[in-house]
Amino acid sequence: MKRLIIATLIALPSASALACATCGCTLSTDAATGYTANAGWYASLDYSFLHQNQLRTGTHSVPTAQVAAINDAGGDQEVERGTINRITTLGLTYAPNAVWSFRLTLPYVDRGHTTYASATNPVTPDQISGATVHGIGDVKLLLNYQGLLPTHNLGLQAGIKLPTGHYGGASADGSGIVGRHPAAFSSGPLSNNASPDNLLDTSLQAGTGSTDLIVGAYYYQAVSQNFDAFVNGQFQAAAQQKLNQPGEDFRPGNQATVSVGLRYQARPDITPQLQLNLSRRNRDQGALADTGNTAGTAVYLSPGLTMSVLKNMQLYGFVQLPVYSKLAGYQLFPRWTASVGASYAF
């Protein structure tokens, strides 16, 4: 049985510039409510919570003191404490027929970040600096094509991410502010620095300042009377950067995501499902990038549930549990993430 696809077509963390390469929500919410070839208008609202509170390098976690020890030996390594991301995404889809559909997603980013900066041991609470980011993130526009098969269960995607969110930071030489309204630290030692030395890292702003190209594909198929399966993938790469001058440049790393999953549809009103989500991101580049700490691979196991509460409305909830990560440098990583959402067909 065909079902409505009215959830966000996403491959986060691209729209919201999360603090590490592979720590964002990689859940396939388009598969959460099921794919369809039905024409019409659809709207969705998605909320994702992600608390990055574990320092990791390679495939294992590391204590704060071990990272600070790099500075004890004369190095210059930021000792991050934690980042809490709350991202609300509004989506609107129009499908004129069974072959084509057009999708717009608008994220709102609510982020809190704390760091010990380049602290040495012993790390103490008075060294903590904090910043908050509130605002619209980067908008995505996506085009879906499902005309390759008569069953319309194979789809191709192409799209663009626009630099609508605030972005930027301090220039590499510390002489000025670049970008558009970058957020600054509001508490702790870093907040007492004169501008631009009080600005939050470029990778933690609400937007990236880049125009990205997006391509993807998906396939879904019933595998028994009560089960259907899906596989999808998406690739995103920055094609143009507003931060493009020497000493003031930043380019987010290319990112690829792949998801596979099963949906159990014995009941029309409740659909348990399980996803496996893989994300790979390359290093950020440029003078404003933390290049050594921004690449990696992560795999999440994501159990969830979709409920049909009205004739044209569905609710869903998922928890993502990391089962593998291999991160470059030292990055904050979540122990779990959660997403809930609602979708409606007009």
TrEMBL record:
Q: What is the protein's name according to its record? A: Transporter
UniProt keyword Signal, yes or no: yes
Supply the alphabetized keyword list. Signal
Q: Does the keyword Signal apply?
A: yes
Q: Which residues form the signal peptide?
A: 1-19
